[in-house]
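Hi U.,

Before I forget, here's the chain from the pilot set. I'm dumping it here mostly so it's searchable later in email.
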Amino acid sequence: MIAKERKPLKYKIEIIGVISILIGIITYYITSNWIKSVVSIIVVLCLIIFGIIARKKLKESNKLRKMETVFPEFLELVSSNLRAGMTIDRALLLSSREEFSPLDEEIVRLGKDLVTGKEVESAFKDMAQRINSDKIRKTLNIIITGIRSGGNLATILQETSANMRERAFMEKRAASNVLMYVIFILAAIAIGAPILFGLSVVLVETLSGILGNLPELGADQTQQLPFTLTKVTVSTEFITYYAVLFLIVTNILGALVIGMVSKGEEKAGLRYVIPLVGISLTIFLVVRFALGSYFKGFFG
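Structure:
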C-alpha cells in the first residue's frame, strides 16, 4: 500500500522536473541567456507547486463546504428518527444517505462508535475533530452542551438545524451585499493595473527613443532652459519584469481578498488566481504592444 501511494507522487515529481527543464531549454534557445533559463525553471517550479497546493486546498474546502451544507438536513433527519422511537446509534446509522456525501462516511463512523459503546459526547467530539470545520465543531459543541444540561436530544437537533439554516441564509445575503466590492477588486487588479503598467512600459520606451535622438546641448544652452531632459536610465526590460511580477503578486493577494470577502475564508479565493493572472497578463501584453505600435508609427 505504501509503495502504491509513493509511486504517483514520484511520477508527479518527475513530470514537474521534466516540464521545468523543457521550459528552461526553450528559454535558453530563445534568449541565449542561461541566467534567464535558470530563472524560468525556478518560476515554473514555483507556479506548479503553488498550483498543486492550491488544488489540494480547494478540494478540501469544497469537501468541507458540502458537509456544512448538508449538515442541517442530517440533524433534522436524526431528530425525526429519534422522535420515531429509535435509539441514538440506529438513528444515526439510518441517517446516512448517499445525497449527504461526503458527510455520509462520517455519519457511519459516528454510528459505529456509538454501537461499540463510546459515549455520545466523546463520539461527537471525535467527529468534529475529524471533519475539522469550525461551523460543525461549534454546532456539535452546542449539542453537547444541551445534552449535558439534560435537554431532549431530538428537540436540540431540530432547533440546531433550524439555526444553521438561518445562519446559512444570512451568509448568502451578506455575500450578495458585498458583490459590488468584489466587482471593484476584480476591475482594479484584472483591468486597471495591467492597463497602467502597459502605459508605463510604453512611456519608458517612447521617452528613451525621443531622448536618444535629441542633440546634445551645450553648457550655455542648458543654463538658459528652465529644465533639462536627460537620458532615461531605467531599462524597459526591468520595467516589464517588475510589472509582470507585480501583477502576479497583486492578483494572488486580490484573489485571497475576494475569497475572504465573498466566502469568509481566504483559501476560497485560490480558484480565482489562475484566471485573474491570465486575464491580467493578457491585457498587459495587448496594451503594451498596441500602444507601442501606435506610438512607434506616430513618431515615425
